[in-house]
Design goal:
This protein folds into 2 domains: 63 residues; 74 residues, no CATH class. The protein is mostly helical. The protein is flat. The mean pLDDT is 87. 75% of the residues lie in helices and 0% in strands.
């Protein structure tokens, strides 16, 4: 039996490595290119890895039991609702000139909302990572 974090690394690790590699290559190469279509394509290089990561997470979600699926669904719903509201609020503040908000703030805000929602929902269900069963059994 593998530990849950080992199973996670096997399932998501290759996609995550591909994502980080393509982000680094994209960032380094696109800054040295002239603006145009080719620069946009190089900047979009991480997109296939993002799709691969999403697919890996969906496959993992489908392997989980009903309680774990419910926890993940509730987490995603809360994280999306809160982060969407915050991002829209920041966009309005930026459009009206109240503050200058870089686009990277949205990604960090969404990640923080997801982590907060994970903690919130797991506290509500009293279900922590140590309670997880090995996913090899499912």
């Amino acid at each position: 039996m593998r530990k849950p974090w080992q199973r996670y690394l096997i399932d998501v690790g290759p996609a995550a490595l591909a994502y980080f590699a393509t982000v680094i290559v994209s960032a380094l190469v696109s800054k040295q290119m002239e603006p145009g279509v080719l620069r946009v394509l190089v900047a979009a290089l991480p997109l296939p890895a993002i799709v691969w990561m999403a697919r890996a997470e969906i496959v993992r979600l489908r392997r989980r039991d009903e309680l774990r699926q419910r926890i993940e669904l509730e987490t995603m719903t809360i994280a999306f609702a809160v982060s969407f509201g915050l991002v829209v609020m920041l966009a309005f503040l930026d459009m009206n000139g109240a503050i200058d908000v870089p686009m990277s703030v949205a990604a960090m805000l969404m990640a923080a909302c997801w982590v907060g929602a994970q903690v919130w929902v797991r506290m509500r269900y009293r279900y922590w990572w140590s309670h997880s069963e090995s996913e090899d059994q499912i």
